[in-house]
Structure formats: C-alpha cells, structure tokens
Amino acid sequence: MARLPKLKPCPFCGERDAFVERADFSSAYVFCNSCSGKGPTECQESDYEETPGERAAIHAWNKRKRASKNKEAV
Ligand SMILES: [Zn+2]
C-alpha cells in the first residue's frame, strides 16, 4: 500500500490542522479544523484507496496557493 502524501499547512490560515473528510462514496475533500476552510472535492483515482478520493483531495489541497482567501471557490 502506497503511503499518502502529507498535508501541507492550511492555505487559508496556515495551521497544520487539516484532515481528509469523506464527501460521498467516491470522493473526498480536505477540511481545516482551525478555520473551516475546505479544499476542492476530488474523485477516486483507483479502487484501492482506503478513503476514495483521499489522494486526489490531498494533491488538490497541497497545490492551493496561500494567497487565495476565497473559501467559496469550489
Ligand atoms: Zn485553516
């Protein structure tokens, strides 16, 4: 089982308080506990993911620019 990439600090508030939240049966997003910021909801990439969409959601989260303050961007 490949290890998942680490979550970068929240692009909205800079805290390391984010975790992957399941959106539905085949997708997930990253949610920040500190500021309630959300990353984009991403779909499952393979059948072997423990949490479907987890890997894609982490990638999307880590790509986020710190400058963006717009939480409604999804
Ligand atoms: Zn945050």
TrEMBL record:
Name of this protein: Restriction alleviation protein, Lar family
Q: Mind telling me which InterPro entries this protein's record contains? A: Toxin_RalR
- What superkingdom heads the lineage? Bacteria
